[in-house]
Sequence to fold (280 residues):
Amino acid sequence: MQVFQRAQDLLLHLTEQKNKGLSIGFVPTMGALHDGHLALAKHCLSETDLTVVSIFVNPTQFNNTDDLDKYPRDTDQDIQLLKESGVQIAFVPSVKEMYPNGAKTEVIDLNGVDNEMEGRQRPGHFAGVATVVKRLFEITVPSRAYFGQKDYQQLLVIKQLVKTLKLPIEIIGHPIERSEKGLALSSRNERLTAAQKEESLVIWQSLKWAKDHQDTYSPEALKAHIYKLFETSTLELEYVEINDAESLKPLQKWEDATHARIFIAALNGKVRLIDNLSLF
Ligand code: AMP
Fold:
């Protein structure tokens, strides 16, 4: 596996590979890799000639400095895992390399998909995501890029980014990888004790309860039940939303959407967890 730190070197190398007719697939990550990230890399490896995985903890998408400071980092282990997975190229830039003119966000029209949920709870988050992904796309010139449904709203934001900027990149969504008991894999889980991981299963239980009871209850009634479930849990429910899966607008009635999804954000101590599930 080749490891690049300089944007210019990687762009030059990938342009040469592209000119030889090879297809490039790209998987952006913030490192502290787990089986969710590796599943994305495998998906990419199965569909493209060259898989590029980036590891970059992007400061402009953190609205909370404590979260940024405590974000787990283990680049040596990440590189080892990527090598073992058969990934051909890792891109591990510094902040200066990604933001030579200072870590600022660009204004990119995201057509409102950035307004709901995470956009509301984490002001500036999606502007930071869109800015860094645009720059990463310019450096890695992929024909396909892979994003997890774990960050479902982010996946829609990236689809909109590609549309707004008219980029010739196909955005592929990958299903959520979970622990055996149902906890969505996340780098932030490293900050949870075994007991806290167990407590966090209330998220998955709530999502499943909603899926199993959608024929009996309205979206409002399902959400009310989930607020009750969290009252007896150690987690603090930040939001539960049932939204149209395309526009992300909150659903009043089931008939208002062709596809609906339920979303939860909750705090376990200081660790913020998000998860979601397709209802129909
Ligand atoms: P992150 O390093 O958290 O920014 O995640 C990098 C990519 O991996 C994003 O597209 C995430 O949605 C995706 N990802 C993270 N966790 C999971 C998971 N449990 N299942 C599937 N994809 C995931």
Residues 29-30, 36-37, 40, 147-148, 150-151, 174, 176-177, 184-187 surround adenosine monophosphate (CB under 6 Å). The first strand starts at residue 2 and ends at 4.
